Amino acid sequence: MDMHLRDVEMLGDLFAEVVGDHLGLGMLAEAEAGDVTLTQISALRYVARHSPTYVGRLSAGLAISFPAATKAVDRLVAKKLLDRRGDPDDRRKEGLAVTEAGQALLDRVQKVRTRRLEGVLERMESAERRALTRALRGFLTSAFLTDNALVARTCERCGCDCFDACVVYQAHVALYGEAISP
Questions:
Q1: Reported pTM
Q2: SS (H, E, C) 36-95
Q3: Which tens digits make up the pLDDT trace of 124-143?
């Protein structure tokens, strides 16, 4: 194996582990999330960004099984972080909505995440921060252009409004020749 490739692989694994630990598990404790898991936070964030939504869409958007999505929703409803709401046009559908307590938790988690990320970035030189941004943007663009399906999956999970500088948006335009439709 090429030495450079091995270094990138090792550093990528370490990066993913540190991000998951520092901006994931540690963040939940600091945000006083109680017994809410990262998967449940992802589900809550997805519902907040894609409201109104349904369990099936949550399942597809997070790439988890329908039973796993149902279980996450049941637990979030029991914790009063998520509400089920009937669809007036189709009684078989139950819409999902984030409660005030759920939004407050998401806000706390985001504040902690931002503060933790700022703490790491502040320890880096300005040139290192710019280089990191360029490297991440370049890596993501290459990954998206290598795997067309990754663009759709990533965009669906993100759920943020599209903007011209978004690397996912740019990859979509490069691949399909058109903007992402809302």
A1: 0.80
A2: CCHHHHHHHHHHHHCCCECHHHHHHHHCCCHHHHHHHHHHHHHCCCEEEEEECCEEEEEE
A3: 999 999 999 999 988 888 88
